[in-house]
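ok here's the first one, seq then struct tokens
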Amino acid sequence: MRDPYDVLGVSKTADEAEIKRAYRKLAKKLHPDANASDPKAQDRFAELNTAHEILEDKEKRAQYDRGEIDAEGKPKAPEFTGFRGGGPRRGPGGFSGYDGDTIFESFSFGPEGARRSSGRGGGGGFEDIGDIFGFGRQRRSAGGGFAPQPGADMEITLPVSFEEAAEGASKRVGLPNGKQIDIKIAAGTREGHRMRLKGQGEPSAMGGPPGDAYVTISYAPHPIFERDGDDLRQNVDVALADAVLGAKVRVPTLKGAVELAIPAWTSGGRTFRLRGKGLPTASGGHGDLLVRTNLVLPKDKDGDLEALMKKLREQAD
């Protein structure tokens, strides 16, 4: 992972406004929807969101500047120079010691709970992992002593588009330890939803169990829609003639385009509400889509139109 400052293209003295501007500009440029033919678009967009998450948070930014966390927001492990010849072994991709048949695992989250499948041979299919949520890790052994400390937990922010949150999707997440995790995003998933993946964190440096990975859902910037709580806003161009005489215009939504009836004598800036076309709500429904009309003049100058406008101006005076 590159330096967050390099990812956003800002200096280490950049203020919050500079960071925000840089993020918005790059988010529009790197959004996967705008780079559908680029197989690495999702990775670059995820890197951008991780960098922004660190630099927009004053505490995380200070921790990164002090060298307490790395470019992915994970705490840096202390050096154990006197323990087994200098601490845990690391391979080219991070900690060594993983079997080839555990490199890929898949998780899904839905009404039936959490389930996992792996690339191991044998029975195949999914095995129930209902204990993936809510169970703490014991640190005392049965004999009363202390068990080895588990590995560090890791926090991962997973950006999803508005469409993916509303309709559901499968997203692949690359972990620093080299694993690739497929996470199924259920339809109606809201921003801030946090998942615990037990045992998918950092390995223990002292022979204990691995830590956990926590995946938090975030909404990615959208090239068309602007978020307003659970509602969405967008502008739609309406020709002058259609605004005066009335017409039907095509309006994009999260589930495909719909036709919006524009009444005759619609002024520019008028807003129409399309109910239930917004983002998932806490109650299980959806917000609304607010469509603002933007009047558009003809591309070519029209002498008759100019004459009419002059006449109307004279009458108004």
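and now the second one, same deal
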Amino acid sequence: MQQVLIKNANIVNEGTIFNGDVYIEDGVFKEIASQISAKSPDVLIIDAEGKYLLPGVIDDQVHFREPGLTHKATIETESKAAIAGGITSFIEMPNTVPQTTTIEKLEAKFSIAAESSYANYSFMFGGTNDNLEEIMKVDSKNVAGLKLFLGSSTGNMLVDNPEVLEKIFASTDLLISVHCEDEETIRENTKVYKEKYGDDIPIELHPVIRSEEACYLSSSRAVALAKKTGARLHVFHLSTAKELALFDHTIPLQEKKITAEVCIHHLWFSDEDYKEKGTLIKWNPAVKTAADRDALLEGLLMDKLDVIATDHAPHTAEEKDNVYTKAPSGGPLVQHALPAMLELYHQGKIKLEKIVEKMCHNPAILFQVEKRGYIKEGYFADAVLVDLNAPWTVNKDNILYKCGWSPFEGSTFKSRITHTLVNGSVVYENFTVSGIKNGKRLTFDR
């Protein structure tokens, strides 16, 4: 096991930034101090003078497309892109082919990741209208949680039976994560514009079709049901200012029963960008107004929104290059999420400490991930070293996603990830992936 000594780093951890050294051995942080000497001549010494050391990012929502959709992405290709973006742990969603709605299918995905993942991994178990018996078999100590699609599902994963939904909420001790958009509202809106435009609906109407009201109707129902049943609810990818009123910022995260996430694209883009980006920024829920974007950032800073994630969901360029009704929603983000947030830091919109809180600490707290998300002695040594003054431009040559494109293509970021460590091994350094697949199955302290 590699021994690593990181010298002279600006360590960003638990709300503070301090200069010091970090010694890593046997895959864990062994010592953190103002000055540490090398323990042996075999230690790899990294001079971090002027750079910032962050805990590895934990992304609580990705779609890596394996099994069944591997022409778009695989666990291997996307976890490789993730470590290049400083994401050292991910939680993947169940809407693959086949869907992850049985214990057998869940364990099959764990087996794939054990062989191929560069980053640490866990998977959501998928709920349907008719698999409550399987849900009850899931061990909450070994699985990230339960994912329910209350809108915009694939296959048979739309949970639209109110009686079933309430029974699931009342029966499981799993953390329930939900996609909230009201299907009836979306269908009605789609019908109106399809009658007018056919399949070639202007992309600018995407946030009108998948509207604020569609989001609020669904998320408010989910929150009300969680309050009624006492379920532990986590609402994925909020996209509107209106929904912020549903969430509390007056109690610590550890005490919250209802939490919420915001994604990179909803903090970065607005409906003004559809003209340039087209279907490349077609997501569900839709990117909405600049006022929504600004309110989401404010909600993040005031702790109504608890974590930042990517909802990484790649499609091929050919699939995206279609008319509105045929172009799939989703896009690749894991490689560029942390650089994008650091850009918001450079713009004076968020502090480094807050980025670390929302991307590293809080996902660990919220999902009760065991010994990750912090730079602490005894914790697994997942870490990211960042140079805040090393500009680079996203282009085809440095994009690692299997789909080969990014909505950030052509963007110049001021900050560069110089090193990523997963379980104590340097797996990425200055645009080069080492080839070490050191990801481990996440465990949960529940």
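notes on #2: The first strand starts at residue 4 and ends at 13. The chain has a mean pLDDT of 96.
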